Prior knowledge:
The complex is a heterodimer.
Chain A: H1 3-38, E1 45-46, H2 49-53, E2 63-71, E3 77-81, E4 85-88, E5 93-102, E6 108-117, H3 119-122, E7 125-130, E8 136-138, E9 143-152, E10 162-171
Parallel strand pairs in A: 1-7, 2-10
Antiparallel strand pairs in A: 2-4, 3-5, 5-9, 6-8, 6-10, 7-9
Chain B: H1 21-26, H2 30-58, H3 69-104, H4 112-131, H5 157-185, H6 198-229, H7 243-260, H8 263-277, H9 284-297, H10 313-325, H11 327-341, H12 350-373, H13 375-381, H14 385-415, E1 417-418, H15 421-447, H16 462-491, E2 494-495
Antiparallel strand pairs in B: 1-2
Helix pairs in contact in B: 2-3, 2-4, 2-16, 3-5, 3-14, 4-5, 5-6, 6-7, 6-8, 6-9, 8-11, 8-12, 8-14, 9-11, 11-12, 12-14, 12-15, 14-15, 14-16, 15-16
Amino acid sequence: MSKQRLAPLVTKLFLIPIAMFGFGYAMVPLYNVFCEVTGLNGKTGAISSAEANQLNIDKTRSIKVEFTSSVNNEGPWDFHPAQPSMMIHPGETYTTTFFATNKLNKDLVSQSIPSVAPITAASHFKKTECFCFTEQAFKALETREMPVTFVVDNAVPNDVDTITLSYTLFTKP
Amino acid sequence: MNAQAVHVDHDDHDHGPPNSGMRWITTTNHKDIGTLYLLFSLLMFFVGGLMALIIRAELFKPGLQLVNPDFFNQMTTMHALVMIFLAVMPAFVGLANWMIPIMIGAPDMALPRMNNWSFWILPFASVILISTLFVNGGAPAGGWTMYPPLVLQTGASFPMLIFAVHLLGISSIMGSINIIATIMNMRAPGMTYMKMPLFVWTWFITAYLLIATMPVLAGAVTMLLTDKYFGTSFFSAAGGGDPVMFQHIFWFFGHPEVYILILPAFGIVSQIIPTFARKPLFGYSSMVYATASIAFLSFIVWAHHMFTVGLAVEAELFFMFATMLIAVPTGVKVFNWVATMWKGSMTFETPMLFAIGFVVMFTIGGFSGVMLAMTPVDFQYHDTYFVVAHFHYVLVPGAVFAIMAAVYYWLPKWTGHMYNDKLGRIHFWISAVFVNILFFPQHFLGLAGMPRRIPDYSVQFADFNMISSIGAFGFGFSQLLFAYIVISTIRKGKQATDIVWEGAKGLEWTLSSPPPYHSFSVQPVIK
């Protein structure tokens, strides 16, 4: 009961909530690392075009890639893919485009966030070039074509016959 | 509910300082602070209950009749926040303050001044939280789980919500550190860990859960605050964040939190059942280990609240099986309580009725919990009234009944007055009947697909909702009887004996009823 015994104990006990407050914040990078490693949450990888060109093309397999788009929070945009879907072979590089129109009479900046389903395919779906890598600035009422170049690697599981690539367009504040 | 009502026997010099206004503000006495916590909790129980009755009145029949939908959403959000943070948690902390020192033979809590502070933060936090009802845009209405992006649409009350949560967290962290320090440092000679009463054990473990998880909640709500006002993007996809991550962080706190709300109840029931079965608790050490196992498992099951967000199948399997594993130590506890009663010389005074009611109805809530743990069926039950029925079964006839059992068990010790046991038994029976009328039909509503947190519903749900609302009003008004019994017992009553209950065992019963203001100044020696 003496103060000497109490003070170090209470100090140690106070360190627990302080550490756990930090742990709450540490969950943010841990979460991102975890999602990137596992491909969870539709997180997809980037790949250089040199690497993409070295992949073996598997002409015996065809996979349907579907494109969907949505605008977050009913923002002032028209945003849609140029084609609803395409057939691809694993290992071959393809390019498709999305159209976006800024409907407001002032300059806006957009950020598009990709998601790939199913989860098992997400880590095999790799982009060499994408408008989602950076913010896109739009002049007032500007319409633009935005390309995506991607490759699905050969290791994609055999039961995957359809992959959906979805973009949500956010207005940057 | 004023403080003056608490102490009556002025002629007894053991009764502490006179009732001046400052006495209750400056007190560092664990019994005073326990009383303050318990009375505060009783008041908030009625505030939260009133909100529940507004919800059930609106749901009495289909269509929108009494309140507008936004106010309905404010009521569901505030009812949860008030009941969890201002009613149930302070009640348990109050019981801990009152009972832990006199159960382990300590003269007071280890850090009496901090104890005073832990309590007096609460009224301020609750004023901040409840006054959100009157600010521009009304109270938070996005659900107590505060999911972004919805919660970020909250109006002027948003920062008030965040700071109230911060203050409540600070209060419970300080209270928990005090409890751990008391238990580790202040036990009477010979009171080894494995001789501690189970209520002390369960609170010891609960306190660790609190100091490990409340800071995580504080971090999560701070991220919400900076997302809304300071341009960070923790949960905003536009800036590279992810709203689902909030759910992970929130439930990393939230699932241990539900055990914070039930472990002390396990402790209370483990004190009461042996007393009225006149047998020692069956499987004491297995109870301790079961409590510790539940606490450990509570940290690795959080994503069962999020089965429908699009987890990987492997993750869903892991969280499903880990969740079902909790049924094992919980089952150990339930069987131990039943085995304690087996062949005991049982009597059914009010505390025992509430304790047995707890065992039966908490187990019903546990079973629906196992159903919800199954990922495939959870896709059907998610966000329906089945979930509402499940957690109300474990929290109302679970946690709240245990708190009432504790009050009926120790009230004669605290006040020195015996209450009218017949009134107490009547209170039990009407509560037990109405609580089932209130919550049992909600299982059927949920299985039939009625979503939670919606002020209107399709006509096929009308009958069960009407029954449920009748149960709600019956249950709500029967709690006035509880308030009457408690307050009238504080004021007067037949002098209680020191032991109060024939079969009671433990240090608290060796003290007079009421105990002297300063007890165990000389610590007893436990053999």
